[in-house]
């Protein structure tokens, strides 16, 4: 094999990569040393803005295989045949901390999946939790500010975390989930993934269904206690990354089975919970899980920056047969992600290999911008309609339309018969074993007892009381005990 020659960015051979050029042996350095200037300047530009949330993550390639017929519910081509495989890329993440944070912390985990389908990329950008803290996107920046580092102290503050929750009773369900046993997964392999939002499927006949996605881990659920988490996070900040990387390198390919809950569109209006409220689940007794297929991860990225840091997932990357529901959070996210990508990666981020629709190459009249690498032949026109044979629209909407009525305005969610902020949080508490309940109470009290203002503590306690009187009483007692001993 011929020896590889080190070159500058313009391809010229580099004579010396150990010593800078200077004016004589002891003299100052020379401006003409192109290799030195280029090397230092390039180094200064290695970082790009980190994700404003979910900054820390790990990625892997794999495939999705259909195991069950769902053609009665969606006409998505990648789901149209049992046995069909579609290439995928997944990025797991923690949410609140910055790039340098630790993996084994109490925090939701991101579960962002890209399907490289023959009809374009389909992104399902979910979490390991079936619900979320808030239900209107207008609250998201405030929510995240309260959970990330304080602008003065530069660290996460229980005062801010719990103050926001004191004003957000709708978060009680997700808080109960997060403070419970599943709040610190042992690894990315040992947790479930959820689409969390409700999405719409449309079949070939034009019939609409609302669906919720559940990816159940085939490795089994494994979690860490708060004490185990603290110990592991202190010893190895990269514990999840190490686990995923090593498992796939060893050929122990993690997998998940995808199930969906399916609601015929006509049932949405009369369902006991508002089906578009992301702080609520649909109990399985109402809508049972139906198996769709399995996700297998079998290849690590070659380069973390190129493929994981530059990965861009957007909840509005849909394919025919799969579209959004009117969930307001989902609607807000349909702006936020591509906007974040344009800021973080630039307008041509969809041309990066990890993001490009490799099984259905993009063909449109979008042009130019920084780092444009996609352009057609010399005869392609950059406008449409045209008299040449450029790409044209299909006239086939991706999904069935929805009828709407009413006046524009700012509204809270329409309440269905069983809707309130607390019922499902109480149900989750009552579902737990008494050991689990004890750990949940201890975890909540551990945080809440650090809050400096009594009124903030009281408001939070009222939420747990409303979820279940026993739950509230136990948290109240545990908080009092901890505060007395502080
Ligand atoms: C209105 C509410 C929300 C807004 C405005 C929002 C916004 C964002 C933004 C700006 C990013 C960074 C994207 C990037 O730089 O590439 C992000 C990442 C992410 N968000 Fe959200 N988010 C919201 C709610 C949610 C919810 C409800 C979920 C889960 C169900 C979720 C899951 C994720 C995941 C998994 C990532 C990381 C994606 C990746 O790995 O690149 N977000 N979010």
Automatic annotation (TrEMBL):
Its GO biological process annotations read: hydrogen peroxide catabolic process; response to hydrogen peroxide
Binding positions for heme? 337
**InterPro entries linked to this entry:** Catalase, Catalase_3, Catalase_AS, Catalase_clade1/3, Catalase_core, Catalase_haem_BS, Catalase_immune_responsive, Catalase_sf
Please list where the region (Disordered) is annotated. 1-20, 376-399
- The UniProt entry annotates the active site at 54, 127
Q: Which cofactor does it need?
A: heme
- Alphabetized Pfam families for the sequence: Catalase, Catalase-rel
Any single Gene Ontology cellular-component annotation:
cytoplasm
Name the UniProt key words of this record, in alphabetical order. Heme, Hydrogen peroxide, Iron, Metal-binding, Oxidoreductase, Peroxidase
EC number of this enzyme? 1.11.1.6
All copies of domain Catalase core, residue ranges: 7-392
Q: Enumerate the SUPFAM superfamilies for this protein.
A: Heme-dependent catalase-like (SSF56634)
Q: What is this protein called?
A: Catalase
